[in-house]
Specification:
Blueprint (H helix, E strand, L loop, with lengths): L19 E2 L12 E4 L5 E2 L10 E4 L4 E4 L2 E4 L4 E5 L6 E3 L6 E2 L12 E3 L6 E2 L12 E3 L6 E2 L12 E3 L6 E2 L12 E3 L6 E2 L12 E3 L6 E2 L12 E3 L6 E2 L12 E3 L6 E2 L12 E3 L6 E2 L21 E2 L21 E2 L12 E4 L5 E2 L10 E4 L4 E4 L2 E4 L4 E5 L15 E2 L6
């Protein structure tokens, strides 16, 4: 990105002797009227010309520039599609790969035909193609690169063939009009943010072949009402379903060992969720803001409950912290207004901050590592105040034994 965003740059000569040009090297050089690729250039990384609409002349024998499309020398790879006014394009059947950023920001492109000869779609290949409405990916394609269709806001329908084995990070990020997609049985992983902000996506079927769901994979899919996770899934990434406000229920398959940070945060319509016995940890903010969640059973194998894990679960009527939990995070039960009581089991030896801030229910402490006395939770030797829970008290004299006051103790 050597000259990226040099918007006032009006002239530039790439001297003979330059052998390599990097991705987005001239991106958004909006005042630059023309460029010449000299004979010496033999290596181009990604699309150096994304966001630049000036006149390009190619003297290099290693590339072919034909009808505003830059290919490699044997025309097997599209490097840069530069016709910003065209609305449709048929990729020639001698092309085998679509390079990184090849169609980047082609906002007028509504329709494209990808032939069976293409085997790979590069990173950001169609990123920012805001007018693209539908697409069929041929059986020959095995991988969809990171951000391949990022920001294709008009894309309503896409068919993924059985040949695809992986969906890259942010592959369909901000595809706001995408209503449904079928993931083929060949896919084993769904990348980070793969469907992030696909706000029109209503349902999706994840095949048995998938073993991992990346961080933010379905973050802010606000219309998603139903999703089935197969037994093959063993990991659910951080904020995987964060902000899926229409999701009402979900079953976590056996084999999943951890619920990632903010995995279901702000799933405001989620009423029921089943956690399998295999789960050992519940991440920070895992269920924060799940205001409709009425019931959840924490499996006996769980050893840690993260910061703000159930914060804002205002409809949660009951919760049992199982024996085996050793650590509870700050604000873990904040704002759980319907929760009448909680018991700290004997196993809890570590409390971070004040897990009970903003919660007024009855607390019972069985742990030998803490003392609960007159609605004040202390550490075992009464040297630290962890939680002051008498919300009606107008005054309080801190005992002389106290040497520290925990973060949020009086919150």
């Amino acid at each position: 990105m050597a000259f990226a965003d040099c918007k006032s740059l009006r002239s530039l000569v790439v001297p003979d002797g330059v052998t390599s040009i990097g991705k987005r090297a001239f991106s958004d050089c909006t005042s630059l009227s023309s460029l010449v690729l000299p004979e010496s250039v033999g290596n181009i990384i990604g699309n150096p010309f994304s966001g630049w609409d000036g006149e390009l002349k190619c003297l290099s024998p290693y590339f072919i520039y034909d009808n505003k499309v830059l290919f490699d020398k044997d025309k097997s790879k599209i490097i840069a599609f530069r016709d910003k006014k065209t609305t449709s394009y048929v990729i020639p059947d001698y092309v085998t790969s679509i390079g990184n950023g090849a169609f980047y920001d082609c906002k007028s492109l509504r329709n494209i035909v990808i032939p069976d000869s293409v085997t790979s779609i590069g990173d950001s290949a169609f990123e920012g193609c805001t007018s693209l409405t539908s697409l069929v990916i041929p059986d020959s394609v095995t991988s969809i690169g990171d951000s391949a269709f990022d920001g294709c806001s008009s894309l309503t329908d896409i068919v993924l063939p059985d040949s695809v084995t992986s969906i890259g990070d942010c592959a369909f990020f901000l595809c706001e009009s995408l209503i449904s997609i079928v993931i083929p049985d060949s896919v084993t992983s769904i990348g980070d943010c793969a469907f992030d902000y696909c706000e029109s996506l209503r349902s999706i079927v994840i095949p048995d072949s998938v073993t991992s769901i990346g961080d933010g994979a379905f973050d802010s899919c606000t219309s998603l009402t139903d999703i089935v996770l197969p037994d093959s899934v063993t990991s659910i990434g951080d904020w995987a379903f964060e902000g899926c406000g229409s999701l009402t229920n979900i079953a976590i398959p056996e084999g999943v060992t951890s619920i990632g940070d903010s995995a279901f945060s702000e799933c405001s319509s989620l009423t029921d969720i089943v956690l399998p016995d295999s789960v050992t940890s519940i991440g920070d903010k895992a269920f924060e803001g799940c205001g409709s969640l009425t019931n959840i059973a924490i499996p006996e194998g769980v050893t840690s409950i993260g910061d703000s894990a159930f914060s804002g679960c205002e409809s949660l009527g009951s919760l049992v912290i199982p024996e085996g939990v050793t650590s509870i995070g700050d604000s873990a039960f904040r704002g759980c207004g319907s929760l009448s009581s909680l018991v700290l089991p004997e196993s809890v030896g570590n409390i971070i901050g004040n897990p009970f801030s903003g919660w007024d229910g009855e607390l019972k402490c069985l742990s030998p590592y803490f003392i609960y006395d007159n609605k004040v939770l202390f550490d075992k030797d009464k040297s630290k105040i962890i939680a002051f829970r008498d919300k009606k008290a107008k005054s309080y004299a801190i005992p002389d034994s106290i040497t520290s006051i925990e973060n949020g103790a009086f919150l």
